[in-house]
Amino acid sequence: MGTGELQQGAPPVRGELAALSVEREPGVPPWLPQEEMSLHSEDAADDARLVSLGYQPQLRRDFRLLTSLAISFTIVSVLTGLTGLYGLGYQYGGPAAIIWSWPICVAFTTCIAAALGELCSAYPTSGGVYFWSYAVAPKSCRALAAWLTLWFNLTGLVGVEAGINFTFAATFEATLQLAYPGFSLGAGGLFGVYAAITVIHGLINMLPIHYIGIMNCVSIGWHIAVTAVFCVLLPAVAPTHQPASFVFGKIITADKTAGINNVAYSVLLSALMSQFTLTGYEASAKMAEESRKASTTSPWAIILTVLTSGVVGWVYLLATTFSIVSPDTLLSPDNATGGKNVFAQVLYDASVARFGDARAAIALLALILPAQAFAGASCLVDASRALFAFARDRAVPHWMAWVHPKTRVPIVATWVMVAASQAIALPMLGSLQAFTAVTSIATIGSYLSYGAPIALHLFTQLFRCSTFQPGPWHLGKWSIPICAVATFWVLFLTALFVLPTVLPVTPQTLNYAGALAGSVLVAALVMWVVSARKWFDGPNTSRKLAERSLLHGGEADGGGSSGASKGP
């Protein structure tokens, strides 16, 4: 609903005329109750801002700061990322690398979140990083910048969704292994669990956004409550604890498991545990068109997600690492999880040492599983809104932008992302290297899409060619230094996560993240040169569509959602 189109209600009735003394926005009925009037005005202001960016509102606004924070916090999900990749961190760097890489990564990621928050406040649209790249880039290259950002963002989103759901399947298998020693789902069983949870997420995402908001509020409560319970119970269950010298100072290289005996190199690779977990916090930006006071709500949600996750995650890692009972057997193929799940093995060792059985470990893992399911469902919300925005702008086939007329949810985009997540699952089954590659490409794709608008914003500020008009949430004089630090960290991560993770390098041990990232870049450039440059000129706003309509004698659509275009 755009400005000036607010639906008139019924005439006033007795008892409702008191609201007439309050100043009202144009178009708001004078008999609307005070609370509803406030919501009405907020939505009208948000919709007016969206219209000024060239889009007609299509989605229902029902998110506030808590629900916006909840969706990003749920996607980051320390109970998913740190649980699933704790073994990778332990294998490549040991306890000290796990404990110290987290706050370091959180500090740099906070700079990225702040830079993204400034852009989000100025341009609160579902397109997120893709729209921002177009908005801040020099005019000569902004369409190409948006195009490349779009494809890296989609790659990252699919990879993150796949990584979360694979972690759920692996945690589910580990829980059964502890309950039934010797049990294994096998590759087929793992894929079955993965496929089932992905489809369930698709069904959940067909609900109106109000129910998704409720789910995310439940999720953030579940994450915090389970983390608190875990951090109290696990140290209490473990009969012995590691000394601080082990937790904060013990380094383990991957010389036996991955052939890497260089301490610095091995420790750097362990940072994937932290940085993969710290993805998806910009989801609040993609929910901007479904949020109230989006220009301030979404930026605050982005940065609060990183800070809150940073605190919760570090407590979680400390509780786990101090509670290690048998550090020498965590990676052994002869242990209860077959050496495949270090985190579950930590819980198993503590439970058996205290009680003589695995019941406590099973209970703790069972508490973590719902958090991982919440994370996958929320990640799909994020991914579907991104694809909806791209399809609305005809960067991908326009039929993917279809919105259900009653629920106002992008149904088709949701199921396309479900299918894409299913498609990349098979290579991960039974292969740690493939899972590492998928989590690496998810991290690389996500951070390149974050880094593109930040780097362009930095470039135009440094060379004084910026036309950027800050929103109400901005960095002021700190914008340039924060953007510079954020750009450095993105480039560093990209270089790090394409390096070999196993030596010597063979076709079986090659880190395919670099090849996948390169393939995405080459494919996007080929599509651009061959076709896209002829019809894609960035966000397909209603303003552009009106201009095309005048040129071609057609009718412009309302808001770039169904109008004529030369695109797909």
From TrEMBL:
It is found in: Membrane. GO terms for cellular component: membrane. Pfam families: AA_permease_2. The keyword Zinc does not apply. GO terms for molecular function: transmembrane transporter activity. It comes from the Eukaryota. It is a multi-pass membrane protein. The chain crosses the membrane at residues 65-88, 100-123, 144-166, 178-204, 211-238, 258-279, 300-325, 361-388, 409-429, 435-459, 480-503, 509-530. The keyword Transmembrane applies. Gene3D superfamilies: Amino acid/polyamine transporter I. Keywords: Membrane, Transmembrane, Transmembrane helix, Transport. This is Amino-acid permease BAT1-like protein.
